[in-house]
Amino acid sequence: MGAGLLFGHTSIAGGLLYRLIMAIISEEIMSRTQACPKVTIIILHLKTILCLVDCVRSLNKITYRNFNIIVAHNGPESSVLLDALAPISRHITKVINTEENLGFSRANNMGIRHALQGGAEYVLLLNDDTEVDPGFLTVLIDVAESRPDTGILGPTIFYYDQPQKIWFAGAKFVPETCMVTTAGFDNVEQCEDSVPIESDYVTGCALLISKNTIEKIGLLDERFFLYCEDVDWGLRCSKAGFKNLIIPGSHIWHKISISSGGMDSLMRAYHKTRSHLLMARLYEPKILRKLQRKILRDIVWVLLKSSDPHRIKKARAFFAAMIDYHTGKTGKGPEWLMTNT
What we know:
alpha/beta; 2 domains; 21% strand; two-stranded antiparallel ribbon; Spore Coat Polysaccharide Biosynthesis Protein SpsA, Chain A; 10 helices
């Protein structure tokens, strides 16, 4: 009888102790999560589902805990997409279907608005053709929280197929050409340097921006369909008194230009040209005439000297970009840009 009571009391005491320990652990986890600002990661997706799945899988392994994912799908609702995401979707809170390709700025802006309405203190724009280091976001947030002068931050980005070679680690905007020069491009990382690097902009491939900065400088300029929207955002950030920083200790890897059809695609030629002209008008109008003469010379060179089998369409893409810029057209451009044949 006495032994039964003893074991009964021991069992009850053990159960109470267990519940007390679990309550303390739960409270500690909740406290740490609440101490970490909420981050919404917006992944812009067009069509390469396997890349998106790899991206989300890498995000599921990150050390930062207080985050959710919004997939901004530049197209109509897709059961194939939803089925692919279902097994790995524990952090995905929303899939936005734009019904058609709205471009980088407009689709991301839809995601940003939704993120801010959901209480995000930071928004991370991320290409779907990337994979991330588990600690990349923790490092970014640590710097962001300790540097109130910072508006936009980004990781060091490496080539996916050459994991030690740098793809982006900062850039400088050159007003005389309205182009950017990149720091460390194609270099192999030699050592780990923890000192943030000041940059004129952070690439939209992976870009962390605070709610406060967005409220000060506004959303992405939707006149930029593809290319230069991140440069414009960075320059607006600097004008508002904030810094753009690249954080060397934060790493991701990029599968280059899958979403835009490759480095030599007609779409790339068209949108880089149209966006370049718009940047010149916004930031250095006096070079516009010179820039247009250069584009015309490039068209002549492509037609007369290039060995590209698609040189006629390439020249047509440059020319169409000039015409559409002058007529104020935005959007994805002519349908024939989607193929090189």
